[in-house]
Fold this protein.
Amino acid sequence: MERRVPAHIAIILDGNGRWAKARGKIRIEGHTVGYKKIEPISLYAQSLGVKVLSLYCFSTENWNRPNLEVKFLMNIPIEMEKNIQRYIKNNIVVKVSGRKEKMPKATLQSFEHIVDATKNNTGMVLNICFDYGSLYDISEAIKKIKEDDAVIDENTIYKYLSTSEFPKVDLLIRPGGEKRLSNYLLLESAYAELYFLDKYWPDFSEDDLDKAIDEYNHRNRRYGGIKE
Ligand code: IPE
Ligand code: IPE
Ligand code: MG
């Protein structure tokens, strides 16, 4: 039987700090190595036929970390921007989900530049979730529904989420050993298959993505119905 490739895969990039600690390094060294995994894993996902890859890179709760670490993480988009030509050449469409108001101007500008430069690409969507939190996204959706005086129902609520243009999450992967969602794509993952692995994100490989997709192919997705 042919392997089904999930249309939308979401990954919680977790374990950078512990990866560094285990090697006697400081946490941000883990973020540096973790950051470098984004491009190869994205390209591999695209080569498999994934339509949308959402990556949780900074949560609305991650502001609670020490200043220096937050500052370092805010530089990730600026680093990404340096490789903008590669994203263009590789036909990846970069999108960003999350709160725009709180991040430094330079961070936001880098994001805007990458998004704009890749908007005419036709390949996989790489949805960078940055200062993203599901509860924040839902509360913004409700505010806008109120402003528009729209009828509140299941479809409207979903339509007003920042991610509504994407297919719902089919497979959600969390490396790092924790078995929780940490405020990530809660509604979008309502029927996602969950895959947890102990490996830290900096050690995550193409092979690990393959294994997750293999496991996904053994899941029986019923959506509340019955399947023999
Ligand atoms: C990266 O992993 C996730 C981010 C918030 C950037 P962590 O920094 O959470 O690493 P651990 O979980 O402390 O090991
Ligand atoms: C989730 O990881 C957020 C990101 C990976 C960006 P955390 O490390 O912040 O989550 P908790 O605190 O373990 O739940
Ligand atoms: Mg963590």
